[in-house]
From TrEMBL:
The lineage of its organism: Bacteria, Pseudomonadati, Pseudomonadota, Gammaproteobacteria, Enterobacterales. It holds the Pfam family Epimerase. It comes from Gallaecimonas xiamenensis 3-C-1. This is UDP-sugar epimerase. CDD domains: UDP_GE_SDE_e (cd05253). InterPro entries: Epimerase_deHydtase (IPR001509), NAD(P)-bd_dom_sf (IPR036291). It comes from the Bacteria. Keywords: NAD.
Length: 335
């Protein structure tokens, strides 16, 4: 099949593209390779995709309406996997406009492209951050998510709303995936695992927010890719029996779904740091800090709906996954 993967130079997009190419599919990857974090890491990911005969990379900005219209005026994509976005909760405090451009204008341009092509299925990244002020655990898709605590989260919720509109008005089948703290090899330098591993190996202290009283539903990249690709084959159908009053918030009378995609197993930050210590063989020096604006203290995904749809349970635990990351980090940066 012919896939469009947006954000192909990014952490998750790279892994998805590689997995598709390994399976023999055609992949068109787009990315603007912005400098939100180390550009050379994005280029190194692309260098691994470049040799595949069925890979084509186009450097472009999602927010460039004319370029996006041009992209979608070419041969039809069987699936659109939309992962490009301005990510990161803390960066959105100081750089709100980057989120409006990439996540709102960019998402609209993807939806317009799917409408123009009659795309069979758009799968896009939402985020666990949409749960904002919610405290009842585990987080369920049926819960209200009207109280985000960062502009990033608000744009991700907006993506779900915009997608619903296009599913309803134009019958574009859409599935939104609320990712829960994805980690693994080729991961993002702005995320805790990368920052902690680097600091521990370099002998610096790590900043531990909320004095370590945090928990995250860490989800290993291979599990994310497997689940995402299974989901992409589950094209949502319009459900005439559904109503706002009686149906789930993750479904609709339109061809629309939203799932949590997490391990379903929250891990304390202290245990996560212990896993990095075990993998590096070094003890972490810790600066205990207050919680940062825009952050939430805990996340935990209810994944029952996802399991019912694709019969998949994440396979990789935190100790194993962290060890894989540390192996990659040492190989990539230190050898
Ligand atoms: N990694 C996680 O834990 C996590 C959690 C929740 C949600 N998500 C979402 O998953 C998706 C992928 O995240 P990731 O961790 O791979 O992040 P990433 O930053 O590594 O990848 C995103 C890619 O999109 C590209 N990009 C950004 N703005 C663009 C634009 N305007 N035009 C074209 N390309 C652009 C970036 O250059 C980057 O390569 C994002 O939508 C993110 O919000 C990730």
């Amino acid at each position: 099949m012919r896939y469009l993967v947006t954000g192909a130079a990014g952490f998750i997009g790279f892994h998805v593209a590689k997995r598709l190419l390994d399976a023999g599919h055609q992949v068109v990857g787009i990315d603007n390779i912005n400098d939100y974090y180390d550009v050379s890491l994005k280029e190194a990911r692309l260098n691994l995709l470049a040799p595949y005969e069925h890979f084509q990379f186009v450097k472009m900005d999602l927010a460039d309406r004319a370029a996006m219209a041009q992209l979608f005026s070419g041969p039809r994509f069987d699936r659109v996997i939309h992962l490009a976005a301005q990510a990161g909760v803390r960066y959105s405090i100081d750089n709100p406009h980057a989120y409006a451009d990439a996540n709102l204008v960019g998402h609209l341009n993807v939806l317009e492209g799917c409408r123009a092509q009659g795309t069979a299925h758009l799968v896009y990244a939402s985020s666990s951050s949409v749960y904002g002020l919610n405290t009842e655990m585990p987080f369920k898709v049926a819960d209200s998510v009207d109280h985000p605590v960062s502009l990033y989260a608000a744009t991700k919720k907006a993506n779900e709303l915009m997608s619903h509109t296009y599913s309803h008005l134009y019958q574009v089948p859409t599935t939104g995936l609320r990712f829960f703290t994805v980690y693994g090899p080729w991961g993002r330098p702005d995320m805790a695992l990368f920052k902690f591993t680097k600091a521990i190996l370099d002998g610096y202290a790590i900043d531990v927010y909320n004095h370590g009283d945090m928990q995250r539903d860490f989800t290993y990249i291979d599990d994310i890719v497997e689940a995402l690709l299974r989901v992409s084959e589950e094209i949502p159908a319009a459900n005439d029996q559904w109503s706002v009053e009686k149906g789930s918030a993750g479904e609709s009378s339109a061809p629309y779904r939203v799932f949590n995609i997490g391990a379903g197993n929250p891990v304390k930050l202290t245990a996560f740091i212990e896993a990095i210590e075990a993998a590096t063989g070094l003890k972490a020096k810790q600066n205990l800090m207050p919680i940062q604006p825009g952050d939430v203290p805990a996340t935990w995904a209810d994944t029952e709906d996802l399991f019912n749809a694709i019969q998949f349970q994440p396979q990789v635990g935190v100790n194993e996954g962290v060890a894989e990351f540390v192996r990659w980090y040492k190989d990539f940066y230190l050898s």
